Amino acid sequence: MTTPHTSVIRILLADDHALVRRGVRLILEREPYLEVVAEAGDGAEAVELARTHEVDLAVMDIAMPRMTGLQATRELLALKPGVRVLMLTMHDNEQYFFQALKAGAGGYVLKSVADRDLVAACRAAMRDEPFLYPGAVTALIRNYLDRVRHGEEPPEQVLTAREEEVLKLVAEGHSSKEIAEILFISIKTVQRHRENLLHKLGLRDRLELTRYAIRAGLIEA
């Protein structure tokens, strides 16, 4: 049974093959509440179109010229944080899958089963629920279990957005004074956040904070 929708979901579709875009558009527009409002042939064009079109959801291929779908996702979400992103790809590949999640995508759909999964993935994205193909679920569980085995179980207490900002800057090597200037807060507040981070994460010093930030994907190794 189709879930009733009060408004049409406006979709930006990005793929460098016109034939694929046509097929995907046909799948999407079978549903009366899904409408493709813009089509891009690469990631850079997708970002440009997002500037000039009202878009609720972007459906992105990963491998595209000029700018990949992963790069475009990061740019797009920086430009319009409210937009949801689905990766539509031929790659059943754990590395791409984790990179897509890190870039901010809310779902990962394989082209080989798009006819079956894509509409469900769109619905899930608009409900802010992740959509993962079965192999991706297995990869996630395996990744989590590996972290637990190596004593890297995620902390029970989640960091606040501000603590995450401070953690990233500490890990990048900024001093408390520099962090205070970047975030427009006092040095005392920065020091308090650092103490909270060490306490929450059960870590001892800047080096351990940096290792944690790399694992959490806040900075590049």
Fold and architecture overview:
It is a single chain. By secondary structure, the protein is an alpha/beta fold. The protein is 52% helix and 13% strand. The protein contains 10 helices and 6 strands, in the order βαβαβαβαβαβααααα. A 6-stranded parallel β-sheet has the order 2-1-3-4-5-6, with helices on both faces. Helix 8 (176-183) crosses helix 9 (187-201).
What's the helix and strand layout?
Layout: E1 9-14, H1 18-28, E2 34-40, H2 43-52, E3 57-60, H3 69-79, E4 84-89, H4 94-103, E5 107-110, H5 114-126, E6 131-132, H6 134-149, H7 161-171, H8 176-183, H9 187-201, H10 206-215
Parallel strand pairs: 1-2, 1-3, 3-4, 4-5, 5-6
Helix pairs in contact: 2-3, 7-9, 7-10, 8-9
Task: Provide the descriptors you would attach to this structure in a database record.
221 residues, alpha/beta, 6 strands, DNA binding
Number of strand segments: 6
Mean pLDDT across every amino acid position: 86
Coarse structural class:
alpha/beta
Low-confidence stretches: 1-5
Helix content: 40-55%
Tally of DSSP helical segments:
10
Largest sheet: 6 strands, parallel
Based on Cα principal axes, name the global outline: elongated
Distance between the termini: 46 Å
β-strand percent reads 5-15%
Output the radius of gyration. Answer: 20 Å
Order of helices and strands: EHEHEHEHEHEHHHHH
